[in-house]
Design brief:
single chain; 333 residues; alpha/beta; Rossmann fold; eight-stranded mixed β-sheet; six-stranded parallel β-sheet; 14 strands
């Protein structure tokens, strides 16, 4: 039985606590938040003790692992505080506000012998898993063209810190980073990014084009302030066919394969239904399994660092109005 605690009792903290409570092999032992009303409400709902600070929580409950679900600008300090106790860290994305902070967090946890996991949950959505499986059959070594979009209302309307780029990183670091992590994990080595960012008090929109070593071009869009429901979509097109998916179609995946030469029709369409599963449950269960077994996670700490590094490059590109190639970092052994 793995004892887990949750630091941060906002929306994501509630999700983590709820999933742990329903997970065989996991025992939620406590929650904390500087907002006493939020901490006490989640503690009461989950039937566990609540605390005002991480120090009080960690000292009283002695967890094996702790979820960090607080605003991004607090990640780096809390990762260190949890690691100093010898407790494994499960941190919500992004890992940190800057690549320097992210590198330090990875190194800090490694030096103390604790595991560091980062919640890039898109990798656990069934539709995106199926997409990743289709990339090589359809694109082969030559790669293809990818377009993805995610858009919704501005989170700063609910939590004002999102509108402060020094605390959230803005739409690229907080929202687009979902897709940045996915393309880096799916298409291999990226070599360059060219980005645009349009910001007002009410909207934060970004578009970024990533070029990959194998020739794949990935176009990402992220939009805070979209006047409609939150939604996501993606399309991958290559010589072997097209894969499309969108949240509005309940995570269904549509694959159109190129027909063999001389077959008459242009495409053979193969509808595919994807079983709906809760990706947060799958992600957290996977992380706890890795703690118990010592296995490497689907999303490594280095992957999370790379996502921050490329998000940072996109931000630089948008500021400088030019393509950017971030410094290359060797993956630790």
């Amino acid at each position: 039985m793995t004892k887990v605690a949750v630091i941060g009792c906002g929306g994501m903290g509630n999700i983590h606590a709820d999933r742990y409570r329903s997970m065989p092999g996991a025992k939620l032992v406590g929650v904390c938040d500087v907002n006493e009303a939020a901490a006490s409400a989640l503690g009461a709902a989950a039937g566990v003790p609540w605390f005002r600070t991480a120090a009080e929580l960690l000292e009283a409950t002695k967890p094996d692992a702790a979820s960090i679900a607080v605003p991004t600008y607090l990640h780096a300090a809390l990762i260190k505080e949890v690691a100093d106790r010898g407790v494994h860290v499960i941190c919500e994305k992004p890992l940190a506000l800057t690549s320097e902070e992210a590198e330090e967090a990875v190194r800090y946890c490694a030096d103390r012998g604790v595991r560091l996991f980062v919640g890039h949950v898109v990798r656990f959505f069934p539709s995106y898993e199926k997409l990743a499986e289709q990339v090589r059959p359809l694109g082969g070594e030559a790669g293809g063209v990818y377009h993805a979009k995610r858009a919704g209302s501005h989170p700063g309307l609910v939590q004002p810190w999102f509108k402060d780029a020094d605390k959230s990183g803005g739409v690229i670091l907080d929202l687009m980073i979902h897709d940045i992590d996915f393309i880096l994990g799916t298409f291999g080595e990226a070599v360059e990014v060219f980005a645009f960012n349009r910001k007002t008090n009410d909207i934060d929109y970004a578009s970024a084009t990533f070029r990959f070593k194998n020739g794949t071009i990935a176009q990402l869009e992220a939009f805070w302030g979209y006047p409609g429901a939150f939604h996501t979509s993606f399309e991958y097109a290559a010589a072997g066919g097209i894969v499309r998916g969108e949240s509005d179609s309940s995570e269904s995946l549509r694959v159109r394969r190129s027909a063999p030469p001389g077959s008459g029709s242009g495409f053979v369409e193969t509808p595919q239904s994807v079983l709906l599963e809760d990706p947060y449950y799958r992600e957290l269960a996977h992380f706890l399994h890795c703690i118990e077994t010592g296995e490497a996670p689907l999303v490594t700490a280095f992957d999370a660092l790379e996502a921050v590094r490329w998000a940072e490059a996109a931000l630089e590109s948008a500021r400088e109005k030019r393509p950017v190639k971030p410094r290359k970092e060797e993956k630790p052994a």
